Amino acid sequence: MAITLNLQGVDSMLSQQRKKSIQFKTANQAMMAMDKFVPKSNMQKQNRLRTATHVSDDGHSIIYTMPYAKAQFFGIINGSTIKNYTTPGTSARWDKRLIGDKALLKTVTDVYPRELLKYGST
Fold first, then answer.
1. Backbone angles phi, psi at 109, to 5 degrees
2. What is the DSSP letter of 52?
3. Dist CA 64 CA 117 (whole Å)
4. Hey, what long-range contacts does 65-70 have (CB within 8 A, 24 or more apart)?
5. What is the pTM of this model?
6. Exposed, middle or buried by CB within 10 Å (0-12, 13-18, 19+), for 27?
7. pLDDT digits (tens, 9 = 90+) for 33-88
8. Torsion angle (degrees, nearest 10) of CA 12, 61, 95, 29
9. Half-sphere exposure of 52 toward its Cβ, with a 13 Å CA cutoff?
C-alpha cells in the first residue's frame, strides 16, 4: 500500500509573496484596532495623527508620519511627561493598550490563520 502526499498546496500557502500579503493584512488590522487609542484633537489640523498613518511595504511596521507622532507615542514632549490626553481612552504607547485589550487583540491575531486558510483553499 502506497501513500502519496501532495504538498503542492502547502508550498503555495507558504510562498514568500503570500506570507508578505498576510503580514501586511495583519499589520493593517493592528493599525485599525489601535486607532481608538491614538490621541486626537478637536482642531481639524491636529487630527492628522490618526489619519497620516500607513503600513510599511513589507508589513512589518506601522508608520505615523506626523512630526509629533513619536512624542505622542512615548508620552514625552521636550523632556516632560504628558499627563493629560484630551481624548478619553487615549494615552501613550497605544500598542500596549492594544495588547492589553484581549478581545481587540484577537481581531488582529485571527487575521493570520484566517488568511492562511483562505489561501490554502484556493
1. -70, -20
2. S
3. 31
4. none
5. 0.78
6. buried
7. 999 898 876 655 556 788 888 999 888 899 998 888 888 899 998 889 988 887 88
8. -40
9. 15
